[in-house]
Model the fold of this input.
Amino acid sequence: MLYQRYFEAAVSRLKDERRYRVFVHLERDVESFPLARWHRDDGSVQDVTVWCSNDYLGMGQHPEAISAMVETASRVGAGAGGTRNISGTSHAIVELERELADLHGKEAALVFTSGWISNLAAISTIADLLPNCLILSDASNHNSMIEGVKRSRAERKVFRHNDLAHLEELLIEAGDRPKLIVFESLYSMNGKIAPVKEIADLAERYGAMTYVDEVHAVGMYGPRGAGICERDGVMDRIDVIEGTLAKGFGATGGYVAGDALVIDAIRSYAGAFIFSTALPPPVAAAACASVRLLKRRSDLRAAHQRATHITKHALAAGGLPVLENGSHIVPVMVRDAELCKAASDLLLTRHHIYIQPINYPSVAKGSERLRVTPTPRHTQEHIAHLVEAMVGVWHTLGIPFVEPPSHLHVDEKSKEHCAYPEIKLAAQ
Amino acid sequence: MLYQRYFEAAVSRLKDERRYRVFVHLERDVESFPLARWHRDDGSVQDVTVWCSNDYLGMGQHPEAISAMVETASRVGAGAGGTRNISGTSHAIVELERELADLHGKEAALVFTSGWISNLAAISTIADLLPNCLILSDASNHNSMIEGVKRSRAERKVFRHNDLAHLEELLIEAGDRPKLIVFESLYSMNGKIAPVKEIADLAERYGAMTYVDEVHAVGMYGPRGAGICERDGVMDRIDVIEGTLAKGFGATGGYVAGDALVIDAIRSYAGAFIFSTALPPPVAAAACASVRLLKRRSDLRAAHQRATHITKHALAAGGLPVLENGSHIVPVMVRDAELCKAASDLLLTRHHIYIQPINYPSVAKGSERLRVTPTPRHTQEHIAHLVEAMVGVWHTLGIPFVEPPSHLHVDEKSKEHCAYPEIKLAAQ
Done:
């Protein structure tokens, strides 16, 4: 092939920097989640415990989501048949959009083929429709938001991660022009939660529109699972809420919710929406079933938080360097790309635990980590096994341990609601 | 809401230009395809015949595709659970990629969440990995290809639609630098087929890499349904073939196929791939079943071509201005945005036929059209009803008729293979 050397050089570069990624070939199983079958290269198959899934609540394996998908596929078929305009506006997608608008207390919602595309399409379209718009973007925003910001013709400024003073400074500096603040409610790689209320305050004070990415929060926070904005009582003060159907809701696709007018403008102007085949009705139906179910299932959210709490406590009690953050994401710090990859490999091959390494560019160099995501279906045995395995791997590879920080101790109140008995650590 | 006036102005602009789109709310039905239920705004429901679906072969409603989706959802769940790196490399997607690589006779394939994203991600990544690359892009390329071209940092030049002389001129002008020719094998809006062999000749002569979008051809052309490149015997002379799982294959998602090295580079560098949740296993399984089935079902391709041939002939015999193109897409020219929308509305409300209007920016102003897409499941009755309805609408609205051009007459050879008896036109 022509130009072979350029592609070779590009791939070699990643290998040299120890950030060439090898995908682990897995087969999920509704019966055994969070276990999955790992297909090795030699053709053999091994059960492994998945500890890094974004199917945070196990909704992808929930009977109601699956039966909605099965019933819809059997009745209307596997695909949408076209873009929304070309016969792709299915009954299932219309119902899903109603359900999502209701979830977020907004007039309208619009479904995309992925969360990545929601951000690309919605951010760039909104910014381009506001004359002389300035985008103010959090420094830790997800790749898809950065792509949306870059795709627009608008000027952009980046404010330091969750830094209200810096954001305010930029808002003042910007003066009267239209301003769009784009940020996440919960940052996936460090698990930190944004000061959503304070950002809404600033937006109101200085006249800016707000766009929040809630993909790591929808389904999991707030009384009906609408996310951090719902939990913090500020849903009505945020202009556009973007979410995903692929994580807490266990299916696939993304969406935005907001005033009917803004949603109509995005629907009418965003090429990525206009020119993409619609989400298949069976996928929309599965997502819709999840959203409906999670509106009333606070118990699943509580079980998720409990599993997280216990996991953090147990890992910290094992001396592992857990990054505290107040969310359901449990980053365990390695701070070295090669060790991080080696730890992931050892966990898989020796302990049959799957946690992929998080290296640059997902996180800054020197802040490499394993990102653990407990689900309500991780049992006390799973957690004990995880801690034992990680402690063993840390010893084997000589990764630094830390003393458990005191704020990670289980307090009396949360103990009361704890579904899991005290974790016994065989390795201790 | 802040900035309301800007969004109002944006939506009004579309309404003033008669290109504000209203989606038709449909419910498909595996039993009655190409019929679907139209949900009117008043809540009533009406059966309509869909004549504009991109589910060209009806594979979205095929029992093998549906049962693959149902079986996989029941066994492994509704969603992928994460990106390809975060436990999203499912067995179903690994199998699908093998099947697609085999289909196109390439070393590897990579699946994306949509065809739109495949083009955005693959074109921009390839161009950015080639130092000082010049992209040569066909003037009629799809929105997703244009977005991919624009997203890259590479310089680009546009060659006139299917114009080999112009392409050659630009290749000569470019000299020694890396060059990437991006084009479609079959253009969706006019149905024209690219001179793929001649483009491959030019690429070899002047040292350019080739990237072809086969989304409107995969499943439908070539002995095993690999598309126009297969039909024309040039599959091995094209570097990267992009396809969709959402049209001929009846599911959703997109893909690229090529040398393992190029595919690995795209996999490793394309943010839109890296940071998107993988296609759900049930969707991948449905697509995989379709691809496998269509490798051996030339009879479905033949039936599709017959339905197209008969539809074109019947419409032309009715005096309707059919744009000839040699493909399965049947554009019927209206050449006026308002009339085009009115024709579509009348077909739906009076005749219960759904064909959405194709107006600017999908086509140039003054070339507005109805884009008819026959499937193997449109019967002679459907075709007769279509022609009668369109002739009626043309009369009602005073849209110009034309004499049927002679090259649309059914020749003796194609008559032999014709599945449909002679169409009787009640309106004639």
